[in-house]
Amino acid sequence: MLELRLVQGSLLKKVLESIKDLVNDANFDCSATGFSLQAMDSSHVALVALLLRSEGFEHYRCDRNMSMGMNLNNMAKMLKCAGNDDIITPSRPMMAVTPSPSCSKVQVRFTCCFAQDKIADFEMKLMDIDSEHLGIPEAEYHAIVRMPSSEFSRICKDLSSIGDTVVISVTKEGVRFSTRGDIGTANVVCRQNTTVDKPEEATIIEMNEPVSLTFALRYMNSFTKATPLSNTVTISLSSELPVVVEYKIAEMGYVRFYLAPKIEDDDEETKP
Amino acid sequence: MLELRLVQGSLLKKVLESIKDLVNDANFDCSATGFSLQAMDSSHVALVALLLRSEGFEHYRCDRNMSMGMNLNNMAKMLKCAGNDDIITPSRPMMAVTPSPSCSKVQVRFTCCFAQDKIADFEMKLMDIDSEHLGIPEAEYHAIVRMPSSEFSRICKDLSSIGDTVVISVTKEGVRFSTRGDIGTANVVCRQNTTVDKPEEATIIEMNEPVSLTFALRYMNSFTKATPLSNTVTISLSSELPVVVEYKIAEMGYVRFYLAPKIEDDDEETKP
Amino acid sequence: MLELRLVQGSLLKKVLESIKDLVNDANFDCSATGFSLQAMDSSHVALVALLLRSEGFEHYRCDRNMSMGMNLNNMAKMLKCAGNDDIITPSRPMMAVTPSPSCSKVQVRFTCCFAQDKIADFEMKLMDIDSEHLGIPEAEYHAIVRMPSSEFSRICKDLSSIGDTVVISVTKEGVRFSTRGDIGTANVVCRQNTTVDKPEEATIIEMNEPVSLTFALRYMNSFTKATPLSNTVTISLSSELPVVVEYKIAEMGYVRFYLAPKIEDDDEETKP
């Protein structure tokens, strides 16, 4: 049996919004320590890893490890109803997985109490999804950039109106985002900046050695759907590893996106 | 001759917005006591009844009873121009029906004075529309639910992301809205609640006997277009009668929607 | 060499937004006195003339006259990235045209410093565009109407939901905008009004002789895209000349739109 209750009704909704464009169906793995998910996107290019630790929930109980296969779009529809903050009474949706008495299939149930007088509950069947869990080893990165998540989002959006790929280069000068398309080129340089009013506005660059890698902007723009989850984003780069774009979820865990760099090929960017 | 002037320029616009998706063409019936409309939706499933009593108008004069056939979309276009509140000077549109001297057809004329210096007028030809006026007898209902209109709107919208029909059940427990679809089931229960800060936030349930009826959510969602007209909605249910969804228009009248329940059929909801 | 810097990052963006629906590709003509453009719309019916005088720029340097052919949509994309006001640090984009060392083609470069720590630059290739510069002689107009630009925009939008053309008539009574369509007719009359709180809310009519001209509303609605550039619009009418719809750009210049009147033809407006 699994039971969990969130303080913020909208958090689980934001988590789903951040990943449901990349992943259609996925297994949520639940254990006594928390709630996690690992899934490849449908074209098997990007990997999403989510962790929500049990101590971040208002209530969390998981009697035995279980893996719950869900269609993320359907789950998002359910949560849109259950976990809404903008309703007069804020909701604290409760999620419970129990073998349903009426049906042989295991079901997940979201219950949502809006004050005393209104209760909503939603039941969704679970799916069997084949998936293999990849071990992601801790790694050393050539460079780690921490910057405001809204700024990273804006840069990715701006560059994608000009080109299809972004070259992210970290040097002593700072971090440079470049693109090239039919209409021209664009470069945005962000320098280290720690003298800011609020710590979340800082741009902090830790560099062991310079690195320059090319990525598909389409994926980067998908990752920035997680911007509402965190004020800052951390981008870890290494020439031999996929980039990690991480959004921390305060006191609970993270959403991490992994994406392999494109092999740089001069012909590729100069379109015919 | 008919002449009427509204204090709130946007009221007639909101009334039209609330019904023009259901009804394309309709006769407005005018008499000394007021302005009314009764029309079936184009698939002859739902009925709309509108009443605007003469005393609610800033100015109202109707010399003889008349029936004016109008295309509601065209009328909405005209009113969008004439009766706008968000313009600097609020308008009080005047509507007049007079035989036009230039043309044998009867025309309706909307005139709108924005302060001293700007006058807009719009003329629209009237149509001949065949319609029979149904007598709707006063009836006893098994249950009458009054609740905030925004909450009813939200519930209908939420449920329609999961299923196509809603079962509305009134018991001693409260009123329950349920749906079932391919992705799962949803139930929202609202209990009687009169201990609220503002009377319009109350949920009041008058029940003579329990009732449970099934309706198409598509129609319910159309009815909730009238939400801007009133803070509360009244839903009158009886197993032998169409449901009445009523939005009162302060000091003037109402918009009422009538919809026959679906015959409950267990096969129908379990889609193949 | 040309270098210019704007105080308001968004001004050049607004200028482009106001004309890019009418004109795809155009030559910007630069000289020591300023920056100008003259172009026909793609169907050769309307003419756009833009002037931004050098003294309106924070920094302006132009060593020799040059004509820069640009695709306005591409330029708008670049400026959307470079010149954004809604970012935390307001930007003052710098535009420079220099023979690029890496390429035989002349390029335009937009550079944008957001405070100390973020720099964006964008390079776009210039195009060769054939164009002939029309001399537009100063003319006497029968009537000149100055009114709030938002009101003119609203009238054009409202009328275009009813008809395709607008008749603009200036008489002693005021200025009248009329249209006629399948669903009916509309007339909006604005009288001279100088007793307003703010000078930009005045409607001022200078009339030498009455004039009544018909124009395509589609073009008028395109012209009103320039509304964000100015609180007022000036409409100069003469029966022998194209109408001039002018939006002044404070302390810098103007955007002017010229449109030939339609030859009035009674059959044309009464559609079959």
UniProtKB/TrEMBL annotation, chains A, B, C:
<dbReference type="Pfam" id="PF02747">
    <property type="entry name" value="PCNA_C"/>
</dbReference>
<protein>
    <recommendedName>
        <fullName>DNA sliding clamp PCNA</fullName>
    </recommendedName>
</protein>
<dbReference type="GO" id="GO:0006275">
    <property type="term" value="P:regulation of DNA replication"/>
</dbReference>
<keyword id="KW-0235">DNA replication</keyword>
<dbReference type="GO" id="GO:0043626">
    <property type="term" value="C:PCNA complex"/>
</dbReference>
<keyword id="KW-0539">Nucleus</keyword>
<comment type="function">
    <text>This protein is an auxiliary protein of DNA polymerase delta and is involved in the control of eukaryotic DNA replication by increasing the polymerase's processibility during elongation of the leading strand.</text>
</comment>
<keyword id="KW-0238">DNA-binding</keyword>
<comment type="function">
    <text>This protein is an auxiliary protein of DNA polymerase delta and is involved in the control of eukaryotic DNA replication by increasing the polymerase's processivity during elongation of the leading strand.</text>
</comment>
<dbReference type="GO" id="GO:0030337">
    <property type="term" value="F:DNA polymerase processivity factor activity"/>
</dbReference>
<dbReference type="InterPro" id="IPR046938">
    <property type="entry name" value="DNA_clamp_sf"/>
</dbReference>
<dbReference type="InterPro" id="IPR022649">
    <property type="entry name" value="Pr_cel_nuc_antig_C"/>
</dbReference>
<dbReference type="InterPro" id="IPR022659">
    <property type="entry name" value="Pr_cel_nuc_antig_CS"/>
</dbReference>
<dbReference type="GO" id="GO:0006272">
    <property type="term" value="P:leading strand elongation"/>
</dbReference>
<dbReference type="GO" id="GO:0003677">
    <property type="term" value="F:DNA binding"/>
</dbReference>
<dbReference type="Pfam" id="PF00705">
    <property type="entry name" value="PCNA_N"/>
</dbReference>
<dbReference type="InterPro" id="IPR022648">
    <property type="entry name" value="Pr_cel_nuc_antig_N"/>
</dbReference>
<comment type="similarity">
    <text>Belongs to the PCNA family.</text>
</comment>
<dbReference type="GO" id="GO:0019985">
    <property type="term" value="P:translesion synthesis"/>
</dbReference>
<feature type="domain" description="Proliferating cell nuclear antigen PCNA C-terminal">
    <location>
        <begin position="135"/>
        <end position="262"/>
    </location>
</feature>
<dbReference type="InterPro" id="IPR000730">
    <property type="entry name" value="Pr_cel_nuc_antig"/>
</dbReference>
<dbReference type="GO" id="GO:0006298">
    <property type="term" value="P:mismatch repair"/>
</dbReference>
<feature type="domain" description="Proliferating cell nuclear antigen PCNA N-terminal">
    <location>
        <begin position="1"/>
        <end position="133"/>
    </location>
</feature>
